[in-house]
Write a structure and sequence with these properties.
3 helices, membrane
């Protein structure tokens, strides 16, 4: 959401660093909490979700940016990403 080319490049770098840190940690936690007989199915589903995010995130940001601005595109993405943990927590509570 920073203005200019420097802001876009800084944002891209921060996204890359965040993804590089959270992806291996997330997959390791998922693998540690999954029964061995379901490990392949669980990791496959997680990878599918990650790939859909990799493909859909830029499309969502671009669509909003084309309609409003890049700042709004990143804002919409940030709101959706912030809602993810809340939805996951609600699902965990519902099962428990």
């Amino acid at each position: 959401m920073l203005p200019g080319l420097a802001g876009v490049l800084l944002g891209a770098a921060l996204i890359g660093v965040g993804t590089g840190l959270i992806t291996p940690l997330g997959f390791a936690a998922l693998a540690a909490s999954t029964p061995p007989e379901r490990l392949g199915q669980t990791m496959g589903a997680a990878e599918l979700g990650r790939e859909l995010g990799d493909a859909g995130g830029p499309l969502l940001v671009a669509r909003v940016a084309a309609t409003a601005s890049l700042t709004y595109g990143y804002g919409v993405l940030a709101v959706l990403l912030a809602c993810g943990p809340m939805v996951a927590a609600g699902l965990v509570r519902r099962r428990g």
